[in-house]
Known about the structure:
The chain has helices spanning 2-19, 33-57, 59-82, 87-111. The protein has 121 residues and is an all-alpha fold. Among the domains are: 30-82; 85-115. Helix 2 (33-57) crosses helix 3. The longest helix is centred in the middle third of the chain and has 25 residues, at 33-57. It is elongated, with a radius of gyration of 28 Å.
Amino acid sequence: MKKLMLILGGIILAGGLLYSQPPENPGPKKFGPKAKIREVVEIRKQMRRIEFETIQNNEELKKIADQIKTLREELREKLEEALADNVEYQELKEKLKRIKEEWRKKRHKREGKEEECKPAI
């Protein structure tokens, strides 16, 4: 009787270990917040592509887009002038530049292009 109980216990234990193993290649998750974020990002990319094509094919929209681009550049220049003396802003800007440079180096290193890595502008 003891041997039978030990054998059954061993079989149950082995079965539990066997079936509790994660699958070899689970693949990408098709649910959860990360999947939803990926889906939203992909949808936005497709929408931007369609918007861009529409703007390129419509002269009126193209003129408006050019005006917006010019105004954004002008705003950026004036903001840079106005914030040139703001120490906190300049420190944050420099910190952001260093982080971007680190990311760029990591990406190039991962891709095997470390010697081609150019500094961030």
